[in-house]
Amino acid sequence: MLPPPDTEAAVQSEYARVQAKGTREAYERFIRRHPDHPLVEKAREALAKGGLK
Q1: CA 32 – CA 29 distance, rounded (Å)
Q2: Residue 51 zone, left/alpha/beta (φ > 0; ψ -120 to 50; rest)
Q3: How far does the chain reach from its first CA to its final CA, in angstroms?
Q4: Where are the domains of the chain?
Q5: pLDDT for 31-42, tens place per residue?
Q6: What span, in angstroms and rounded, lies between the C-alpha atoms of 31 and 46?
Q7: Shortest CA distance to 41 belongs to which of 51, 52, 31?
Q8: What is the DSSP letter of 37?
């Protein structure tokens, strides 16, 4: 039997992909998918800075 997935690692990996993509849409999607995760604050800061693709 496989161990349960590491959900924290999955969210962090998703956020890394969002950063690599660097689009407003990607950050907004991350915020919608994980509204209570601490990385949402970083996503909001990235949106506020602007300069996204």
Answers
A1: 5
A2: left
A3: 42
A4: 7-49
A5: 999 999 999 999
A6: 11
A7: 31
A8: S
